[in-house]
């Protein structure tokens, strides 16, 4: 299974382009986060990593 992860830096930004791109890439589950790149605590990234199973692929779009 392909699992996607998106992150935008502020709540004013929109992750729609990332989400669309990940969906088009075949991601069946996408975790979305709004957090500054300076922050180390990323709950959705942790959840995405916990969700992964053997054989899964984590897909991240770099805007």
Tell me the layout of helices and strands.
Elements: E1 2-8, H1 16-24, E2 27-34, H2 43-51, E3 57-60
Parallel strand pairs: 1-2, 1-3
Q: Could you explain how this protein is built, in words?
A:
This protein has 63 residues and is an alpha/beta fold. It has one domain: Resolvase, N-terminal catalytic domain (Rossmann fold, 3-Layer(aba) Sandwich), CATH 3.40.50.1390. Helix content is 29%, strand content 30%. It is built from 2 helices and 3 strands, in the order βαβαβ. The protein has helices spanning 16-24, 43-51, and strands at 2-8, 27-34, 57-60. Strands 2-1-3 form a 3-stranded parallel β-sheet, with helices on both faces. β1 (2-8), α1 and β2 form a beta-alpha-beta unit. The longest helix has 9 residues, at 16-24.
The order of strands across the largest sheet is: 2-1-3
Helical amount among residues, as a percent range? 25-40%
Q: CATH superfamily assignment? A: Resolvase, N-terminal catalytic domain
Distance, first to last CA: 23 Å
- What do we call the CATH topology? Rossmann fold
Largest sheet: 3 strands, parallel
Q: At the first level of CATH, what is the class?
A: Alpha Beta
């Amino acid at each position: 299974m392909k699992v996607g992860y998106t992150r935008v830096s502020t709540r004013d930004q929109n992750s729609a382009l990332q989400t669309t791109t990940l969906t088009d890439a075949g991601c069946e589950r996408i975790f979305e986060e709004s957090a500054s790149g300076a922050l180390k605590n990323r709950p959705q990234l942790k959840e995405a990593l916990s969700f992964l199973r053997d054989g899964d692929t984590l897909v991240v779009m770099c805007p």
